[in-house]
Write a structure and sequence with these properties.
- The chain is α/β, with parallel strands linked by helices.
- It has four domains: about 210 residues, Alpha Horseshoe (Serine Threonine Protein Phosphatase 5, Tetratricopeptide repeat), CATH 1.25.40.340; about 80 residues, Alpha-Beta Plaits (2-Layer Sandwich); about 120 residues, Phosphotransferase system, mannose-type IIA component (Rossmann fold); about 110 residues, 2-Layer Sandwich (Hypothetical Protein Tm841, Chain: A,domain 3), CATH 3.30.1180.
- The chain is about 50% helix and about 20% strand.
- The strands form four sheets. It has a six-stranded mixed β-sheet, sandwiched between helices.
- The radius of gyration is 27 Å and the shape is globular.
Length: about 550
């Protein structure tokens, strides 16, 4: 037995749907209970690009075309570090399946080994206890099983077992995970993907996440490709409830086939699940009413759906590359009207909407880069979870890009402030990188859920202070927490003269901000402190502290 393109296509699409439904469960595995645990969201958005692409791939396509089309879509749509790593795993898998119509166990083992190698190479300092470890363990099991079986489904089942076991061990490999009492979120997402693919290979129904277990979805929806002619416009679904005979169910199927196509009738004990494409959904409902009462009735206009998909696809197409009118340009990532204005004032040509809770994709970044009329464009991600997506954009760009790996808004600001329009590329990279590295970056946010970290009980709503992304203390008072963190950042500079810029979040009341401003200026009368309404979400304050030159 070998794996066909149709089986692989269906499995990836099923995995995408289940990952989307599981994203909150994965997001909640974030080590810190800050409202930015978006691993599940990033992975699901990345995989959903493959879902969109595979809708238009023929069932007759081989595993090479299916894997290549899926991987290419994921590379363009990759979001966050977890999304980029996922896309690289699938890109490697597609390389391993190149030229193959079907895949044997040996082909699958080769593909996963190349995928894991791709992912490890992309990470500057690979850390074990993450999605990398979990996927590597799965690849090792794939190779082992290739010597023991010719059945790809059996091989895949053992890969899933090995990956799940590796996931459970991640807290022993990463102390932060053990302190928080969670497994690695990216590893969990990877397990969801390959486990759902296994269910699809076996012909089993898709799994339903625990929080969605009471859903009454009929699960009979059939996708229409964008290049397929739609003869019957309305996708009609419902459930017939009540006692019935097998003949009634069979007669209902015969009737539905006479008024449409793609009819699916599932006779399940005391209900009949119905799916049909028809131009007369009312007739389909009326026939069902002859047997019992109806529930879960749903009608979708497939022509309208296809039209909307084509419109959305048009929106995501990359623009023409702008004709250069200058040597250097800048694209930064930021969120909040005030923060955007700060970057514009500092010389950013384009600001991509994003940051915590919403990481832009590689394609989003490329779109901004292409619109900048410069020979070379600097990209400032301003978030550790966006750096890899920016680097991915650099690899696939047709325009010259350089990613300056800023991991916070203050670092991005410091870098732009030290750009010299008269300097050359190398001197600017050096000056901007040094400025970013020396900038103190502080964040004041809130706990989005109850949690336990490093022996501390964290309650939902607690004020959390982060220094360069690390949680350093918890408080109950916003002003006190903001003052303590700013004081720590000022002292860390060990300079007689520092500049402090504080971006005020959208949720900070004016009276609380006045209280903080008065306190900090009284405590540090000789320090230059500038308060700006950043209007950023998630963070009450973003604090930038730089030593004066």
């Amino acid at each position: 037995m070998e794996l066909s393109g149709k089986l692989l296509k269906t499995a990836i699409m099923s995995a995408s749907l289940t990952l989307t439904e599981s994203k909150k469960l994965i997001d909640d595995l974030n080590v810190y209970p800050v409202p930015d645990g978006d691993t599940g969201t990033n992975m699901s958005l990345t995989l959903s690009k493959a879902l969109e692409e595979l809708r238009n791939v023929s069932d007759d396509a081989g595993v090479d075309e299916v894997s290549n089309r899926a991987a290419s879509a994921m590379i363009r749509g990759a979001r966050g570090n977890s999304g980029v790593i996922t896309s690289l795993l699938f890109r490697g898998i597609s390389k391993g399946l190149a030229g193959k119509t079907t895949a044997s166990c040996d082909d699958i083992a080769n593909a996963f080994e190349i995928g894991v190698e791709n992912a490890y190479k992309a990470v500057m300092n690979p850390v074990e206890g993450t999605i990398l470890t979990v996927s590597k363990t799965a690849a090792q099991k794939a190779r082992e099983m290739a010597f023991m079986t010719n059945d790809p489904v059996q091989q895949w089942a053992e890969m899933v077992k090995a990956a799940k076991a590796a996931l459970e061990k991640t807290p022993d490999q990463l102390p932060l995970l053990k302190k928080a009492g969670v497994v690695d979120a990216g590893g969990k997402g990877f397990v969801v993907i390959i486990e759902e693919m296994l269910r699809s290979f076996r012909g089993e129904p898709r799994s339903i996440p625990a929080e969605d277990a009471k859903s009454t979805r009929s699960g009979l929806h059939i996708e229409i490709r964008d290049d397929e002619e739609i003869v019957y416009a309305y996708c009609t679904e419902y459930i017939v409830n009540g006692e019935h005979t097998a003949k009634q169910a069979a007669d209902l199927r015969t009737y539905l086939e006479s008024i449409g196509n793609c009819a699916v009738v599932v006779d399940d004990d005391d209900i009949i699940k119905i799916h049909v494409h028809t131009n007369n959904p009312g007739l389909a409902f009326e026939e069902g009413l002859k047997i019992g009462y109806l529930s879960n009735m749903k009608i979708d206009n497939m022509r309208l759906q296809r039209q909307n998909r084509l419109i959305e696809r048009k929106k995501t197409e990359l623009p023409e590359i702008a004709e250069p009118t200058k040597k250097f340009g800048f694209v930064t990532v930021a969120n909040g009207s005030g923060v955007v204005n700060v970057f514009k004032d500092l010389g950013a040509d384009e600001v991509v909407f994003g940051g915590q809770t919403m990481n832009p994709s590689s394609e989003d970044i490329l779109r901004a880069v292409y619109s900048v009329p410069a020979e070379k464009v600097f990209v400032l991600p301003n978030n550790k979870n966006i750096v890899m997506a920016a680097e991915q954009a650099m690899k696939i760009s047709k325009k010259s890009i350089f990613v300056l790996p800023t991991t916070s808004i203050p670092q991005g600001m410091a870098a732009l402030e030290n750009f010299d329009p008269d300097g050359d590329f190398d001197s600017n990279v050096n000056a901007m990188s040094q400025a970013a590295d020396k900038c103190g970056s502080g964040l004041i946010t809130f706990a989005s859920r109850n949690s336990s970290f490093n022996g501390h009980d964290i309650k939902s709503g607690d004020i959390m202070a982060l220094d360069d992304g690390r949680l350093i203390f918890i408080d109950r008072d916003l002003t006190r927490a903001a003052y303590k963190l700013t004081r720590k950042l000022i002292k860390a500079q060990r300079s007689q003269s520092v500049y402090v810029t504080i971006l005020i979040g959208a949720e900070v009341p004016d009276d609380k901000n006045r209280e903080f401003e008065t306190l900090i200026k009284n405590k540090f009368p000789g320090v230059s402190i500038n308060f700006i309404r950043g209007e950023q979400p998630v963070y009450y304050y973003i604090i930038c502290v730089e030593a004066a030159l």
